[in-house]
Every structure is written in C-alpha cells, then in structure tokens.
Write a structure and sequence with these properties.
Blueprint (H helix, E strand, L loop, with lengths): L4 H4 L13 E3 L31 H11 L6 E5 L1 H12 L5 E5 L5 H8 L3 E5 L9 H11 L3 E5 L11 H9 L4 E5 L20 E6 L11 E6 L1 H10 L7 H12 L1 H24 L3 E3 L5 E5 L5 H7 L2 E5 L7 E5 L3 H14 L1
Parallel strand pairs: 1-11, 3-4, 3-5, 5-6, 6-7
Antiparallel strand pairs: 2-8, 7-8, 9-10, 10-12, 11-12
The structure holds pyridoxal-5'-phosphate.
The site of pyridoxal-5'-phosphate has 14 residues, from helix 3.
C-alpha cells in the first residue's frame, strides 16, 4: 500500500459535476460584479517574475477593508489553504480539532489528512448552535484547535460576536472564526484580534466579493500567530494575477456592499417563499438557505428543470442548501419548487 493510512481512509471532497444553467449549489456570487477587472490586466503585466512574496499591495487593500494592520495579515490560495496551514502549524498527530456539527466538511478532511482527531460540538435539533455545549466540550477535551464557522455552512446559523468571544476566552489554544460568509451578517470578531492572542479570523474573496475563481483568501490575527503561519506558508502561494485582481476588487468594495444589500432582500424572499410552501427552511445569515424536504429525488427533479442545488447525505439526508442567486434565478427555483411540493 502506497497511500498513508489516513489518506487510504479518506472520502474525497466531492464537487457535483452536473452542469445546469441555474447554478445554486456552491454559494458563488454575482457573475457580473467584478467581471470588468480582468480588462485591467494589460500587456505590461509581466508574468516572468515570481509574485511579491510580501503581497504588499494586496495586504494594504485588505488592511484598509478589514480595518486592521498589514502586519496582522497572511494571504492564501483560497481561505481553504489557510485553514490547512493552521492545521499544519498548530495541530500534531493525534491531537484534537473541535468544530461545529454539522459544518464545512473541509475541516474534518484536513484533520484526517494531518492524522489529527476531530469532534463536532454544539449541535441542536433546529441547527441553532449551543455555545455553552461547545465551551463545555472545549473544557472537557482541550482541543489544540477550535474552528467556528460563522455564519455556519451549510445551515446558515449565526453565532453572536459575544458568544464567539466566550469560546475564545474558554481556552488558551487557537480558535479560528471562519468568516467566509460574514459580509452577509454582522457578527465579525475581526476587530478583536489585538485583544485575544489565540484568535484567528479567516476570510475569503470567494463569496460576497464573488471571485471564487481567483482562489484568494486571507487570515487576520495577532503578530505572533502571523509569524507562525508565515513559517508554514509556501512561498508565492498566491499567484500574481489573483493578487492583483483581489486588490482591485477590495478597492471597489462599495460594489460588493450594494450586492450584499440586494442579496439580503432575495434571501428573505426565498426563505419566506419556502416557508409559505410548507417547506421547513432555516433562517440564514449567509448567501444560501438550508431546508428540509421529503420530496423523493428532489435534486434530480430540479436538475431536469436545469437547476442545481446542494444535497446532503448521512445524518443530513433529506436536507438541501440553495444558494441565493439573481432575482430571476431565485424566481425560477421557487417556481420549480412550488410545482414539486
Ligand atoms: C466557501 C467557504 C470558504 C471559502 O473557501 P475558499 O477556499 O476561500 O474559496 C471557507 N469556509 C467556508 C465555510 C466556506 O463555505
């Protein structure tokens, strides 16, 4: 056997290969939002040199957007890479990672590859997050790393800022707030990184900024944590084209803010319409709505209408997640649902 044991046992992260013209499965943003930025890559954009490994311009733009200092930032090839680097930097073989249940499946994947242990905590029947149970589990199990996805993927549940800080205060070990969707809510702990030397905030250009294609994420934390992350970060991990496009998008953040406003209106529409149909939908602070449906083969039936949503298995059998798309896309999805229920 060539694969190491932990990889042999690994279930790969599956990306649905089905192509539909209404793509509401991956929480991607508005396709037109920063489309024109590509035109800024002109003939004097040289590709022969490595990127600036300090990512000076990008970090300046992030610092201005996130209201932090350049010295508090590391950048990554998607925030996924940064999450992996955190596992590499802070968790040894057989040490424990604690996260929510259910949550983003990449956390347990990275944990497994690193031969660390993984547990979920804070679960409840209505998918709200039981913060006291998380703190209790942290006290009992003393995880080396705690990852709080806020708002949570796939449920959309939001944890209040003060509750995230209670979790951070309950341990001396590292706590990551994965704020991939925080632009769609208002409970960020980014402004607390100077107050807690064990707090890391991870963010991305993939969701509200609608730039999943450039694979750009960033991490904000106190200087000591940044120094640690920089030790395990591969040099030039972010390519120069992505770094440039992310910088330009961050300078035009007002576009993103406008988009978020319209998205929240649409989110309410989708949520209320699902409830009106008698579908059990869950209140969301992200750019998607999580719901339960007993319709047999719902995913396939929607695919026949050229609509792709995300279906879950295992414990979440009969649960689905639909990304909030454009007004028109949401309308088509809701009409299709109405026909099926
Ligand atoms: C989409 C998502 C990310 C972003 O990943 P990227 O690698 O930056 O595209 C991170 N965390 C969660 C929970 C997500 O859903």
């Amino acid at each position: 056997m060539r694969e190491k044991q932990s990889v042999k046992e690994l279930e790969p992260y599956v990306v649905n290969p089905v192509v539909c013209s209404i793509k509401l499965d991956a929480n991607e943003g508005n396709k037109d939002l920063y489309k024109d930025l590509i035109k800024k890559i002109s003939s004097d954009f040289y590709l022969n040199t490595y990127p600036d490994d300090n990512y000076t311009e990008l970090k300046k733009a992030i610092a201005s957007y996130a209201k932090c200092d350049v010295k508090n930032i590391s950048v990554g090839n998607g925030s996924s890479e940064l999450l992996d680097l955190c596992v590499k930097a802070f968790v040894d073989t057989n040490e424990l990672i604690l996260s929510l249940d259910p949550t983003f499946s990449m956390y347990s994947l990275y944990a497994q590859i690193a031969n660390s242990r993984y547990i979920g905590a804070g679960e409840s029947n209505d998918f709200t997050i039981k913060v006291d149970d998380i703190i209790k589990s942290i006290k009992e199990n003393n995880p080396k790393l705690t990852i709080i996805c806020n708002p949570n993927n796939p449920t959309g549940a939001v944890i209040k800022k003060e509750d995230v800080l209670r979790i951070v205060k309950s341990t001396d070990n590292i706590v990551i707030a994965d704020e991939a969707y925080m632009e769609f809510s208002n409970e960020s702990v980014v402004d607390e990184i100077e107050n807690y030397d064990n707090l890391i905030v991870v963010k991305t250009m993939s969701k509200a900024f609608s730039m999943a294609g450039i694979r750009t994420g960033y991490l904000i934390a106190g200087e000591d944590i940044i120094k640690t992350i920089e030790k395990v970060r591969p040099p030039y991990n972010l390519n120069s084209i992505s770094a440039f496009l992310a910088t330009e998008a961050l300078k035009e953040k007002d576009k993103m803010l406008e988009y978020v406003k319209t998205l929240k209106v649409e989110r309410k529409k989708v949520y209320n319409s699902l409830l009106d149909m008698g579908v059990k939908a869950y209140k969301s602070g992200a750019n998607f709505v999580f719901f339960k449906s007993d319709i047999k083969g719902l995913e396939e039936k929607l695919i026949k209408d050229d609509i792709l949503i995300r279906k879950f298995g295992g414990k979440l059998n009969n649960y689905y997640r639909v990304t909030i798309g454009s007004e028109k896309e949401n309308k088509v999805f809701l009409e299709s649902m109405k026909k099926l229920v």
